[in-house]
Design brief:
By secondary structure, the chain is an alpha/beta fold. 39% of the residues lie in helices and 17% in strands.
Length: 331
């Protein structure tokens, strides 16, 4: 099992600091997520039904007619490699590690490709996987780039898989409005922008034949009835979505400025996280953890990802920890 952000209870045990004292910035999840509506008893008492409001709400939100609801985009990440014969899969790296893990586990050859080398590598690939905006680097890819790579892959009946888990703050970057296109598979998540990671809900946008094969592989009732109910509400709440985009933009700028103030200028930024490359990344991670601030540490390249504090006390906690950090770091 690969390690991810959000392993807060592990940090509690490792550093012997009570759970209530921690500021968890390790996930890139909106800390002020969508408020859960009241869930009728009947929702809990019945099995999920495909003809509820969820798919129509998703079709409107993503501007796409061909959609499959899945138990978080992770379910699709694990399953899509099983739908193709073994081939060569390019992963634009560094990236969300589950992609390479899943394709390698399914018997595919993996090529880890830096973003600036995709063009020269595309002819070798049967499948190209990229995250847009990328996690953790925050790099984005244009519609023109993606469609050019898709055209190349189509010559070999290949796939372009775009993980758009962090794109909701910048919907203009999404290719969802173009789907379905031959060979294009888009993954969307409810966990990040909506702050509803615990629902384990996501969507796959693709050609009907791909969705049919994926649906048969995953089986029935992939998302619980309460999750479907809450997810449909969130997708339809346009006022909340617009207000949240504005708030996250402001908070992102605040976090960027705060990190820069303490000589941790972000290398990449999204509205939900800041990515900081540093040769001292592991030391920074450890020193902040001793101040009950949990970040996400990466080895390759040596870097940290900072999510957003949820409230003013969280911001003050982070600033104090950064002040202590400036004393602990080597010159």
């Amino acid at each position: 099992m690969l390690k991810h952000g959000g392993r807060l209870l592990g940090a509690v045990q490792q550093y012997q600091i009570p759970l209530a004292k921690w500021l968890d910035l390790s996930t890139g999840i909106n800390p002020n997520g969508y408020s859960i509506p009241a869930i009728p008893d009947s929702i809990w008492q019945r099995l999920p039904e495909d003809l509820d409001e969820l798919i129509s709400a998703a079709q409107q939100y993503y501007q796409c007619s061909d959609i499959l609801a899945v138990a978080g985009s992770q379910a699709a990440i694990q399953s899509l490699p099983l739908l193709r014969p073994a081939g060569t899969t390019g992963i634009v790296t560094p990236s969300y590690a589950e992609h390479a893990y899943a394709w390698k586990k399914a018997g595919h050859k993996i090529l880890n490709i830096p973003a600036h080398e995709v063009e020269q590598s595309i002819n070798q690939l049967d499948t190209l996987v990229l995250v847009n905006p990328n996690n953790p680097t925050a790099q984005t890819f244009t519609e023109k780039q993606c469609l050019s790579w898709l055209k190349n892959l189509n010559q070999r009946k290949g796939w372009l898989i775009i993980d758009e888990a962090f794109i909701d703050c910048t919907p203009e970057l999404s290719l969802s409005k173009l789907a379905p296109l031959e060979g294009l598979i888009i993954l969307r998540s409810i966990g990040k922008f909506f702050g509803l990671a615990g629902l384990r809900a996501g969507f796959v946008l693709a050609e009907p034949t791909i969705l049919k094969s994926l649906n048969e592989l995953l089986g029935p009732w992939t998302i619980s009835n309460p999750s479907r109910f809450v997810c449909a509400h969130a997708l339809q709440d346009k006022a909340w979505q617009e207000q949240t985009r504005q708030q996250l933009q402001q908070q992102s700028q605040r976090l960027n400025l705060l990190l820069t103030k303490f000589q941790l200028s972000p290398t990449g930024s999204t509205q939900l996280f800041q990515w900081v490359q540093s040769e001292h990344a592991i030391l920074i991670h450890q020193q902040l953890a001793k101040q009950a601030v949990l970040t996400r540490h990466f080895n390759q390249p040596a870097s940290l990802r900072f999510g957003l504090p949820a409230n003013e006390s969280g911001w003050q906690h982070l600033e104090y920890a950064l002040q202590q950090l400036s004393v602990a770091l080597p010159e």
